[in-house]
Fold this sequence. Notes:
Number of domains: 1
CATH architecture: 3-Layer(aba) Sandwich
Helix content: 25-40%
Number of helices: 3
Order of helices and strands: EHHEEH
Mean pLDDT: 79
Radius of gyration: 24 Å
Structural class: alpha+beta
Amino acid sequence: MIDVTATDLRRDLFRILDRMTETGETLRVRRKGKTLVFNARILLDDEVERRAARFDAAMALGVRENDADYDPGDITDGRHLDWSAEDAPR
Length: 90
């Protein structure tokens, strides 16, 4: 974890960002008696683009036909979980 004051962060911002990019470390910044923790995952541009492309490809597939008629509130279709006592593990 990178632990710095706000002043140190301002002075060394680019070095700290480079370190976070390389190591994935969490950043903790102290200012006026309070602490801010930045625990976000750093994504580089190429990774963001890959994730967006995967998402777009999945969205292009649309709804799966075999699940198009599935209604999670309908317990008569046989696809629900059966929580009856005779099926309970012993």
